[in-house]
Amino acid sequence: MNVLAIQDLTVRYGDVEAVRGIDLAIDAGEVFGLLGPNGAGKTSTLSVIEGLHPPSGGTVAVDGIDVARRPREAKARIGVQLQTTSLQPDLDLRELLRLYGALYGVRLDRETATRALAAFDLETVAGRRADTLSGGQRQRFALAIALLHDPALVLLDEPTAGLDPQGRRALWRHIEALREKRRAVVLTTHSMEEAAALCDRIGILDHGRMIALGTPDELVSTWRDDPAVQAAAHGIVTLEDVFVGLTGPRGKA
């Protein structure tokens, strides 16, 4: 059974059709990259998966549970890390982790919370507030919160945006570890380098439609001779050339 199964998903906002008939299946242990220019439908798709917006048509199931029909059960199987996360300013990391654990129904004592932080190389800053952390530390902490309840599906929305190379690579290692733990991961990013390095498969959205789907190598192999991709390329065709060629040189809002 697929951890995430999307069938003929449509999302409308009034007369605007943001997502148009997407089909997608993601298995345990797979890191899937959902790519697209701004306005392509990525956020709308994630919102439906998270249960924040009802689908206008089609179905989304997480671990076999229909998100629209049984939202509470589905949400319990999802962990979400956003690009930016607001955290209570008066609590240190250990206290925050215990607070969010309680919200998920996971009880953590002080020692257990410290071990959970250590898994993300944060034990030395366990007594600090979130607003004192570096960007990389803050994103690793957000991932630690997202994984507290051992979710089957992890949604990562541009998790490395704004990080320096060291912080980005450190977070990559933790994302790669999710594959080894057999979690299904959906990753959005504007970095083609990141997508090629982390993702087992990639789907490219444009104007609400899935216009390309495959491994990074398959996408390059399939589209390398496309005239628009050739026009975007400077030498050997890369994943970024495929993305720009298929979605347009400036993207589409």
Account of the protein in words:
With 253 residues, the chain is an alpha/beta fold. It contains 10 helices and 10 strands. The strands form 2 sheets. It has a 6-stranded mixed β-sheet, with helices on both faces. A hairpin with a 2-residue loop joins strand 4 and strand 5 (65-66). The longest helix has 16 residues, at 165-180. It is globular and about 60 Å long. The mean pLDDT is 93.
Keywords:
10 helices; 4-stranded antiparallel beta sheet; 24% strand; 6-stranded mixed beta sheet; 253 residues; alpha/beta
Task: Describe this structure in a few short sentences.
The chain is of the alpha/beta class and 253 residues long. It has ten helices and ten strands. Strand 9 and strand 10 form a beta hairpin.
List the topology elements.
Blueprint: E1 4-13, E2 16-26, E3 31-35, H1 42-50, E4 57-62, E5 65-66, H2 71-75, E6 78-81, H3 93-103, H4 110-118, H5 135-146, E7 153-157, H6 165-180, E8 184-188, H7 192-198, E9 201-206, E10 209-214, H8 216-223, H9 227-232, H10 239-247
